[in-house]
Structure formats: structure tokens, C-alpha cells
Design goal:
The chain is an alpha+beta fold and 127 residues long. The chain is built from six helices and four strands, in the order E-H-E-H-H-H-H-E-E-H. A four-stranded mixed β-sheet has the order 2-1-3-4, sandwiched between helices. The model has no long low-confidence stretch (mean pLDDT 92).
Length: 127
């Protein structure tokens, strides 16, 4: 089962959720604005994603601009930025999807098909 960190009103999250459902994937959905991952969890997600921590910033969000995150990210060490992200879920790019080993951030149909598609990834219900 996948863990899906998203925001219920986010159009990108809605599209990602529908796409995963079409792939036959079951999800445990977590509202990232109410229950953001801890700094430790976020660090683990970043490490497993193989992507830089800056890819986890929601650069298009209102909070990002309101808190002047563009400048803060330049001035703060990675650990401090991750701690800040963990304290304010709206700063985190969404959705984040993980199976405990693999991680995707944001939504790309091509990436979702490659990572979460295929028969070996689908969770089929018994008939």
C-alpha cells in the first residue's frame, strides 16, 4: 500500500490520486497540511527519492512567497530548511507518494506509470 501525502483541495493531488487508482494502487492518504511528515521522515523521503531537498519545496504556494522562502533557502542549511518544511506542510511540494522504498514528489503521468504502474506494482483485490 502506498502512502500519499497530499492536500484534498489540490488539483494536482486530485489528478495524481485518480491516476494511481487507475493503476490499481491503494493508498493511505494523509493531509499534508494537517499532518506533515516530521523532519526525520522528510529527510528519509528526500534520501529515498534520490532528488535534492529543493525539489520538495512548493515554490508556487502562497506560504512559500509569504515567508520569503526563496531567500531563506539560500541562507539556511539543508537541515534547517527541512525542519521548516516539517513545521508547515503547505511549504512541501505535493503529492509525495511512497511505498517505503521508492518516493515520487509532484505529479507526472510518465513518472507515475514508470514507478507505480505495471502488474508487479498493482494491488489486486481478491474476487
Amino acid at each position: 500500500m502506498l502512502t500519499f501525502f497530499g492536500y484534498p483541495k489540490c488539483g494536482t493531488c486530485i489528478n495524481a490520486r485518480k491516476f494511481l487508482a487507475k493503476l490499481g494502487r491503494k493508498m493511505n492518504e494523509i493531509d499534508i497540511t494537517l499532518s506533515p511528515p516530521s523532519a526525520k521522515e522528510l529527510s528519509g523521503l528526500i534520501d529515498r527519492s534520490g532528488r535534492p531537498y529543493t525539489d520538495f519545496l512548493n515554490r508556487s504556494g502562497l506560504q512559500y512567497r509569504a515567508l520569503n522562502m526563496k531567500e531563506k533557502v539560500k541562507a539556511l542549511p539543508e537541515a534547517a530548511v527541512i525542519k521548516l518544511l516539517a513545521s508547515e506542510g503547505r511549504l512541501i511540494k505535493r503529492p509525495i507518494v511512497t511505498d517505503g522504498t521508492r518516493v515520487t514528489v509532484g505529479f507526472s503521468p510518465e513518472e507515475f506509470s514508470a514507478v507505480w504502474g505495471g502488474d508487479e506494482n498493482a494491488e489486486h483485490s481478491e474476487r
